[in-house]
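Action item from last week, closing it out:
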Amino acid sequence: MSEADRTYLQENQPEGVPPLELTGERTLPDVPEENYWYRRHVAVYEWIAERCTGLRVVDLACGEGYGSHLLAQRAAEVIGVDANPEAYEHARARYRRSNLSFRRELVEQFDQQVDVVVFLQTIEHIAEPGRLLDRIAETAGIAYISTPNRLTLAPPGAEKSDNPWHLREYDQGEYRELLAPHFQRVDLLGVFHARKLRAHELAIRLGWDRIHPALRITKPFYERFIPAIRTSDFRLRAGDLDRALDFLAICRV
């Protein structure tokens, strides 16, 4: 079996919790090969959770449910919403807290008033984002909405990456233009590499990608390096957004 044909399932799930398959549509915990993307998402959820203490929160397109669970550690109430039946059944079986619930429905159908909307790494999947953004603005006073930066995800000059789930990807100017008509104020932060991922970036600039294949250590190195990545290896900050991995928009009504 080639690497491209390999099936990745979540490992070591609690009894009675069906593991999810990694398809590329959403990131998952408990898949060692996916740890980079999972930690990149968690870094943003953790930043948002610190600002949700005591608030009512909806996590739209919550996927596997790990982010909703993390938000519920601080928020007064969290509702995770996802239309995928497998993700919904997994989330409600695995993540149980008195202040956490999950709903299986389209994100466009959620109409309950809350304090905060969290909508991460999904706007690029939406065919009519303007209509959804209008609904989000009617739902809460503040929304946290993230998307990957096309300039660092896609090949130079390409309209989008090869991710088949993405309908459109944005640079920072395009992302501001998308969001601005729907909110009174939009502030952008970027997600950047830090610590060992920053060191890895610098090593690549110095020729690491030529060295590890020549030494035939690519597979053993990355089999150790990727599972060792932590959320502290990412940082959210303003400035130099063209180089950001993802954009996090803080949108106020």
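Closing note: The chain has a mean pLDDT of 96.
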